[in-house]
Prior knowledge:
The chain is α/β, with parallel strands linked by helices and about 220 residues long.
Amino acid sequence: GDREAGEMGLAAVPGRQAAFRQDLAEALRYARAVGCPRIHLMAGRVPLGTDRTAVAGEMETTFIENLRYAADLLAQEDMIGLVEPINNRITDPRYFLNTPHQAAAILEKVGRPNLKLQLDLFHCQIMDGNLTRNLETYFPLIGHIQIAQVPGRHEPDSPGELNFPYFFELLESLGYTGYVGCEYAPKGDTLEGLGWLRSYWESRGVQHAGTSKAAE
């Protein structure tokens, strides 16, 4: 969408279906070029001056229609579409998709196996908490995980509410083999901010702080 106009994705925005399809085609070209198998299909915001409850039904119908179109197109490329709940308490009050419960219900209605949940623990904690049970409940739907400490949205070892070594071990026990995206704002520079990862590897008995060794 048009970020300067305040848009943040278009998939659930009524009347913007043509623009959504155009942007999706462009995203596909980028994904092919860099070999990325997953694309985040952003729902978008409740239109300004509109009551969320009044437009929820129409926005969900639009979202389902666009997600089915996207899933069928992505299937031709052997790609996965992702939907991410973003909290509307702090980050974006007008974003349409806010909880994993809402996302799971929509994914069930869409009914496409190549659409998955992009679960950001930062947003999930703010909206619902109960992270262990939520991870266990929605694990079959999860296609990507993102992390940031709550409430500052900084490194996992910064002061906050979440115990990330526990969550990493929980993900391993559940059988998660995908990437964990570090979607946080570093408090300093990036390399310094990755000290938490080296410390975590060492705590697991990994001596060499390299990605190939970590993968082993």
